Amino acid sequence: MGRKEIHGNWKKVINNIKDLFDFREVLGSGSFSQVFLVKEKKTGNFYALKCVKKKLLHHSNLENEINVLRSIKHSNVIGLHDFYETRTHYYLVMELVSGGELFDRIIDRGMYTEKDASHVIRQVLEAVSYLHKNSIVHRDLKPENLLYHNPDEDAKIMISDFGLSKMSDHGVMSTRCGTPGYVAPEVLAQKPYNKAVDCWSIGVIAYILLCGYPPFYEDNETKLFSKIMKAEYAFHSPYWDEISESAKDFIRHMMEKNPKKRYTTEQALLHPWIIGETASTNDIYESVCEQIQRNFAQSRWRKAFNAATAVNHLKKLQLAHNDPPMSPTGDVPDIEVVDMCCPGPRDSHLDSNGNPHVSVPLSGEVSKGLCPLKPSHTEPMHALVVTETGKHAYQSEPQLDSAQSGKRGTNQIGQPLQTGICSVM
């Protein structure tokens, strides 16, 4: 099979990316790409540089991601600054965000109210409304793809990861894709769908932001998908007792089973809970954070290169403009990858560049009438961690095997913990 190329006169062809950028740190590594913190030599500006080997392009969604990012510009969407090509690689120069993930910020803030959740959802709605007006459907909205622009208390939310997004002028799609737990009923039912799938996902996110756990729990995807297709969710006591009826009404309209009756982004932006008229100011921090840590802790603690580390490193870089790049030669630095569950030297599971041969699993056993979802290959499958010696390594996200899957714990309301549901497939 020949190498797949990206065509366009907007590409900038260069010999060596290091003629333009100093490589500083590794921000993430996925199945088909690596992301680096880089400093542009000409301007001194910092960016996130996504590097993709051309020989892996036929496995990735890079071309689709580029086409989408080149066509949009919004204050709540991570932007594409530039695009370069060498003989062996493609490089996306992305806007750098340093404020950390949504859940981390909630846990760190100390106080949290419905009004805070409403403010987050309003920003997401404004960005998605912009996308929809430009005939773009994200198709993979979830908390992990919502990042804060900077560490400031009033930092804005940024939507990331457009690997599964779709430009659809006619508005109807059929590809089964997304992340279990956030995907809309019509996708699972193998029906043609439209931009309403994003609104469903926003409803799921709003639900989680108000209680700390997902609306759909099951210990296998067959049962999970069945519940989603029936829109079987509830506002459990005592976790929802203090949540306003307006918030619940908003969620019901967003998580409406019938996509024709489901709120559009325009309708959602006019809801009293989003406008701010009815969102409660009672502190729900303790209850929500306890549930977030119970249900999403594995995602949180696997990420050692968190927002605070990024900010501290950026400050150090600003004080040391003349320090040398991370690697003096080559297209991209070689990276040592180790499994933090079983630390040790590199083995046959790693390629010559120290990158793991990752096999991304599709959804598990599904019943008749359900089909596996197309996984998102764009989100890093390994998070940067700092070892005791101060060196960097990648921590693999272990997959639960069939024997382990039956041993999952439960949360306070007796639902099994769904660590796999909220992670990248």
UniProtKB/TrEMBL annotation:
It comes from the Eukaryota. PANTHER family: SERINE/THREONINE-PROTEIN KINASE. This is Protein kinase domain-containing protein. Residues 396-425 are annotated as: Disordered. Pfam families: Pkinase. PROSITE patterns: PROTEIN_KINASE_ATP, PROTEIN_KINASE_DOM, PROTEIN_KINASE_ST. The keyword Nucleotide-binding applies. The lineage of its organism: Eukaryota, Metazoa, Chordata, Craniata, Vertebrata. GO terms for molecular function: ATP binding; protein serine/threonine kinase activity. Keywords: ATP-binding, Kinase, Nucleotide-binding, Serine/threonine-protein kinase, Transferase. It comes from Alosa alosa (allis shad). The keyword Kinase applies. Residues 21-274 form the Protein kinase domain. ATP binds at K54. SMART domains: S_TKc. Belongs to the protein kinase superfamily.
